[in-house]
Amino acid sequence: MVRAQEQGHGLISNIRLSTVGAARATETGTTHEPTGLDLAMKLHYLKAVYIYSSEAARDLTVTHVKEAMFVLFDQIAWTTGRFSRRDSGRPYIKCNDCGTRFVEGECSLTVEEWLGKPDRSVDEFLVYHQPIGPELAFSPLIYVQMTRFKCGGLALGLSWANIMGDSFSLFHSFNLWAKASSGEKIFIPKTSNENRNFQNPNPTVKDPVSIKRVDPVGDLWVTPNNKKMANYSFNLSVADQISPHFPASKDGYLPVFEILAGIIWKCIAKVREEPKPVTVTIIRKDPNDLKPSGAIRNGQMISSVRVDFPVADASVEELVRCIGKATDERFGIDEIGGGDLDFVVYGAKLTFMDLSEVGLYEAKVMGKSPESVYCNVEGIGEEGLVVVYTAAKSEERVVTMTLSEEEMERVKSEFKKCGLIAP
Q1: Which of 37, 70, 92, 400 is in Cβ range 3.0-4.6 Å of 23 for a Cys bridge?
Q2: What is the pLDDT of residues 54-85, one digit of tens each?
Q3: CA nearest 232: which of 29, 55, 23, 385?
Q4: How many Cα atoms within 13 Å fall on the side-chain side of residue 278?
Q5: Residue 419 to residue 399: CA distance in whole angstroms
Q6: 155 with 267, same domain?
């Protein structure tokens, strides 16, 4: 149980584990039933790290952090339950108040020293993660790691089972925790399966190509991979490193995510030398916001883009147009995800996730925003994942990329050639 210390190369020490849950007991026999879309996401875990300065967090104690979590989990107590299976084999959550695992640690660096590291994937060491299983009844769905830096600053790292809700649900929940820590009243609408079915906007599309069926994993919910995956994360300027790749429009609108996805897609295509056609997956916030505001569940847009031309030779403009025509596949995923099959979503095809619309820096502690936020996913398939989100400076973006180790350095070399990262 010292995974974070071992992976942090001695930078994280004095690991201590406890449990935190809701302040009020849930009514006996209460359950939560995941939808087909929820179950399709069960091999994936969302990760986020919020780093606060010593000025903001020096007086934020373990007790203070946990008390705000009591308030949060009173609203969504089912997230502190445990999975079980129906006689049919379908998983469901017993709302038995077993709690969330809470991890405390200490870092030998200051916040300034930590943030001085150019590859922000070092923040992976600030997230304690264990998959669900092999004993479902004993596996927490959320891990919270509280790491105190030498200067008094603080990191709060979360590992969140994607089966419970999408990344927008995770960030919304953390923003509410921050409000609760300041004494504000919070409210989360009760999650309901009513009106959760997605309308099929593409009736001619039968099987979603954005996901991949895998051999049954049983009760250990881990993505099966034959390749060792690596992480890399970096910041870049919209004005200096993104906009030069795209002609200015008359109205001044710049589709930053699409441009960045197009540039990175081209770089990866050059390394892979893939034959056409090629399909990628786009995950982003639902523009129609099908779920009730603030509800905790999966409602993210999962769509596919298929091209029948060599991506490496295409223009960024052409790829941006294709991304704009992505096909929503949630209806098909929801339909087949409710069975006893197991799927990979992130990384089944090369996947781009747009978190640009998330208010990551709204989670204020003692009135101050985090110095840095890190986002990624655990359990990514072999085709890889690229996550794009806004940096602390609104004119910058953060890219967190997960690819196979054998590809990573060659892709970074392509990034240097096109100016995404320094040579």
Answers
A1: 70
A2: 999 988 999 999 999 999 999 998 999 999 99
A3: 385
A4: 23
A5: 14
A6: no
Angle between helical axes of 167-181 and 62-75 (0-180°, round to 10): 120
CATH of the domain at 132: 3.30.559.10
Q: How many angstroms from the chain centroid is the CA of residue 324?
A: 22
Residue 362 lies in a domain: no
Q: Number of C-alpha atoms within 13 angstroms, CB side, residue 232? A: 16
DSSP letter assigned to residue 346? B
Residue 33 and residue 89 share a domain: yes
What is the enclosing helix (H) or strand (E) of 179? helix 167-181
The residue with tokens 């002609």 is: 247
Q: Is 137 in the same domain as 242?
A: no
State how many domains the chain has: 2
Token couple for 231: 């992480």
User: Do 219 and 156 fall within a single domain?
Assistant: no
The per-residue pLDDT for range 350-401, each reduced to its tens digit, is 999 999 989 999 999 999 999 999 999 999 999 999 999 999 999 999 999 9
In a domain, 193, yes or no: no
| 294 and 352 part of one domain | yes
Q: Residue 93 is which amino acid? A: I
Domain that holds residue 42: 3-181
For 261, the token pair is 């996805």
